[in-house]
Amino acid sequence: MGIIVKDDMLFVMNTKNTTYAFFKDDAGVLVNLYWGHRIARAEDFDTTSMEWEQGYHPDIDKKREECSSYGRMRYKEASMKVAFADGTRDFRYHVDSYQIEGDHLRISLRDDHYPFGIVLHYVVHEELDIIEKWREAENLGEETVQIERFYSAEFTLPGYGYRTINNNGTWADEFKRYEDTLCAGKKVYESLRGATAHVATPGFIVH
To answer: 106-131: per-residue pLDDT in tens?
Structure first.
């Protein structure tokens, strides 16, 4: 089975050789658990909520969130940022519902105060070892909601020691391989051309 939901709080997606898993913790936050070699049994995942007592770093900053947003005590890079009509930029959600249709999982998040929501989409391509992810924003009210940042997905890497591979180049010298060590700070692959081209390939590998 490509998609497993256990106790309405653990979400597990299996491809032929890999598993992607996250859960809803005691605070209602979706937290990533695992992405790696296939683990078939949902019972093998530990869904104990993280306890964090170091005051300098808020606990929300240490969680490997599935849908982080600007606000609370987050100092990390958040994957989305919205501004409501009254100037509030704090999106605090609860999991409203989820649906499974074949290999497609939809999780609906609703703001605790404003008529606004996010739908997380996951499609499992089991034989291809691919899990497709994207998001949709839903304005459920009459007032304007300004979207200042909206990434299609996010994943927090556990631990350290990773390297990135990207390909770019120029005319008659396309797809040259570049590899760097992934360290603290921000690394951005982008193009200002407005179109995919060999000068900036919109893809990368982390290993």
So the answer is: 999 999 999 999 999 999 999 999 99
